[in-house]
């Protein structure tokens, strides 16, 4: 009898054939369109039914790990270089860069890459081709660190080395305005990583001696793009559709994912595989922490809400910007490098409430529209969500039918959190019982100190 596929990693090591667990997603409603990209101002190539995975940006994955035979010499060289202290978010970006999520980047951005990202949301390669790159991946240093660098051409970042360095001005206001579309105070990532950062940026080629580990019992879920591609090949996937979450999975999410697979099968694909890909880097204080989300995702699989035979669950290591249509391009681009040729996008992806005014910061439909037109994403098929809501007549999540709107109940994230905090149950069919129990346990854990947050894992 053939062994069943599993969405879970079985080993604690991170080798190409090891493999992860469940993530989460940001629930949003889309258009009731057939499974195709949204219309664009140009003509996108027609979808091809092919067993091969989509090529990474630039034609190959750019991993930044030092060869095993060179580790000792590179380590010795690094120990003799001047050192830059890295923040938790800096380390998360080292993780992203080292595994090739940002291919073809070879390290923290130099000024030309930074400016192209800010002004064009893309990078032009030496051969003239264009790849998408919408958020700056940069390393800030202060005046004292800049002076210590001096004329050095290399620098040490813990047990990582950066060479051929370039230092340039960190224009924070321009960076914030162009990434978020506002400089209003209260943007979570800005306050966490930019406001207090140095006035200079340092870019250069990155050499990583050992893979990033967090030692938080979740490393087995952190599959690199290369490992994910190996897993998709092992499963003989002829299509990979990615779904990013930063919230607990409810049955509306599951409906969207299973319906997407049905539509792909109708298009002629034989074995489409879901990449359930929760965001695992920095998130704002009121988001459910990664460890609890992963426990909740595990219960969703155990309860059979998603099929483990056709689901791969892994953690996406990027920090979260909450930069709406600008950031969602980065989320989509990174999944190309992991082998996904379809990307599910919903209402207000990567969005947030305005930090001052009582409104959403971004137009709810702009994320999916921007993805359909973004430079460098022409090869990716964008799948807009349908609107899912709780159907009171069927006691389950279903696609919203405007002709009988009175039969549907929209349960917002705020409402869901309030129910969990009060140990109340949602309507039957909204979330699997095991998953809801985990969510209630998380909010129970906050009861003694409501304002405190479970600490985020720190990369080793």
UniProtKB/TrEMBL annotation:
All copies of domain ATP-sulfurylase PUA-like, residue ranges: 54-210
Domain Sulphate adenylyltransferase catalytic: 220-442
GO biological process: sulfate assimilation
Family that this chain belongs to: Belongs to the sulfate adenylyltransferase family.
Gene Ontology MF: a single term: sulfate adenylyltransferase (ATP) activity
GO CC terms in record: chloroplast
EC numbers on record: 2.7.7.4
Organism superkingdom: Eukaryota
InterPro entries for this protein: ATP-Sase_PUA-like_dom (IPR025980), PUA-like_sf (IPR015947), Rossmann-like_a/b/a_fold (IPR014729), Sulfurylase_cat_dom (IPR024951), Sulphate_adenylyltransferase (IPR002650)
Protein name stated in the entry: sulfate adenylyltransferase
Pathway: Sulfur metabolism; hydrogen sulfide biosynthesis; sulfite from sulfate: step 1/3
Region: Disordered, residue numbers: 30-52
Keywords, comma-separated and alphabetical: ATP-binding, Chloroplast, Nucleotide-binding, Nucleotidyltransferase, Plastid, Transferase, Transit peptide
Species of provenance: Sesamum calycinum
Compositional bias annotation for Low complexity: 30-39
Xref: NCBIfam families: sopT
Reactions performed catalytically: sulfate + ATP + H(+) = adenosine 5'-phosphosulfate + diphosphate
Record localization: Plastid, Chloroplast
